[in-house]
Amino acid sequence: MDLIDGNQIATAIIAELKAEVAAIGGRKPCLALVRVGEDPASISYVKKKEKTAAEIGVTSRVILPPVSITQAELFKLIDDLNADAAVDGILVQSPLPKHIDEVKVFRRVSPDKDVDGFNTINLGKVAQEDDTGFVACTPAGIMELLARSGVDLKGKHVVVLGRSLIVGKPIALLALQKRAGANGTVTVCHSATANLPAITRQADVLIAAIGRPEFVTAEMVKPGAVVIDVGVNRVPDPSKKTGYRLTGDVAFATVARQCAKITPVPGGVGPMTVAMLMKNTVKAFRMQALAARGG
Ligand code: GUN
Question: Which residues line ligand 1 (CB under 6 A)?
Answer without folding.
Answer: 91-94, 116, 137-138, 166, 273
